[in-house]
């Protein structure tokens, strides 16, 4: 499938599979634009992907909410075990984790309905005035949806699923917020291989975007 077919899939509120690269995490994530997320999306990611379901935010949006990376928050905290704070991950990047949140209308926060509500409501505040005030009054932390902050330099400084998925949403003309979840393999107990992800993509009519293809597209455009 073409790169444009992946953008069209996102615009329809459907999934895209995103492979970062063989030299990095070597993982395939299920990706959907946050503004379209329903409980069905969450259930499918939980059942067919099985990794950690997170919400990736564009850097400007995250900054407007006064969010920080979790490793920065912990570095500035009073905890004594600073050596526990992750620096570079084994694949060479700083983690993009920030706070984890629940929307205030959720109950436990973990159900498909609750997580879909949290994700959809985060997307809903993108286009409103005084986002930070609405964010602070509408979301609680700690919660069940981890927030990821894309690098300020986006793909020029980091080529992770966080940046790639936000770039895809932006390029599709959508709110730069995505829900992403790593695809796991219950037979090998490891990340799902690209070959198996390609088979899943073909069987389910889902575009699979290769990170190298995405980076080449970004250079041209």
Main traits of this protein?
alpha+beta; DHBP synthase; two-stranded antiparallel ribbon; 9 helices; 9 strands
What does the secondary structure layout of this molecule look like, with pairings?
Elements: H1 3-11, E1 16-19, E2 28-33, H2 39-48, E3 54-57, H3 59-64, H4 70-75, E4 97-103, H5 112-124, H6 131-138, E5 139-149, H7 161-171, E6 177-182, E7 184-185, E8 190-191, H8 194-204, E9 208-210, H9 211-220
Parallel strand pairs: 1-9, 3-5
Antiparallel strand pairs: 1-2, 2-6, 3-6, 4-5, 7-8
Helix pairs in contact: 2-5
Characterize the structure shown.
It is built from nine helices and nine strands. Strand 7 and strand 8 form a beta hairpin. The mean pLDDT is 93. 38% of the residues lie in helices and 20% in strands. The protein has helices spanning 3-11, 39-48, 59-64, 70-75, 112-124, 131-138, 161-171, 194-204, 211-220, and strands spanning 16-19, 28-33, 54-57, 97-103, 139-149, 177-182, 184-185, 190-191, 208-210. It has a single domain, classed as DHBP synthase. The chain is α+β, with helices and mostly antiparallel strands and 221 residues long. Helix 2 (39-48) packs across helix 5 (112-124).
Query: Which class best fits the helix and strand makeup?
Result: alpha+beta
Number of structural units classed as domains: 1
Shape type: globular
* CATH homologous superfamily placement: DHBP synthase
Output the CATH class name: Alpha Beta
What profile does the largest beta sheet have? 7 strands, mixed
Averaging pLDDT over every residue, what do you get?
93
The unreliable regions are none
Q: What share of the residues does DSSP label as strand, in percent?
A: 15-25%
Rg, Å, rounded:
17 Å
Number of helices: 9
CATH topology value: DHBP synthase
Helicity range: 25-40%
Examine the secondary-structure arrangement and name the CATH architecture. Alpha-Beta Complex
What is the CA–CA distance across the termini?
19 Å
Work out the number of β strands. 9
């Amino acid at each position: 499938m073409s790169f444009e077919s992946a953008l069209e899939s996102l615009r329809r509120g459907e999934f895209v599979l995103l492979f970062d690269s063989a030299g990095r995490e070597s993982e395939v994530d299920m990706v959907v634009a946050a503004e379209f997320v329903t409980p069905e999306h969450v259930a499918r990611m939980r059942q067919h992907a099985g990794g950690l379901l997170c919400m990736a935010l564009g850097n400007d949006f995250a900054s407007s909410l006064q969010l920080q990376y979790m490793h920065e928050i912990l570095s500035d905290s009073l905890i004594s075990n600073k050596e526990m704070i992750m620096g570079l991950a084994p694949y060479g990047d700083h983690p993009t984790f920030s706070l984890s949140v629940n929307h205030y209308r959720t109950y436990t926060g973990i159900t498909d309905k609750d997580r879909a509500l949290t994700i959809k409501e985060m997307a809903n505040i993108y286009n409103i005035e005084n986002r930070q005030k609405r964010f602070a009054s509408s979301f609680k932390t700690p919660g069940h949806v981890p927030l990821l902050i894309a690098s300020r330099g986006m793909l020029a400084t980091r080529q992770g699923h966080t940046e790639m998925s936000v770039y895809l949403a932006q390029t599709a003309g959508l709110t730069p917020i995505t829900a992403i979840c790593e695809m796991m393999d219950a037979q090998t107990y490891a990340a799902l291989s690209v070959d198996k992800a390609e088979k899943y993509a073909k069987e389910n009519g889902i575009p699979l975007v290769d990170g190298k293809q995405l980076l080449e597209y970004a250079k041209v455009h």
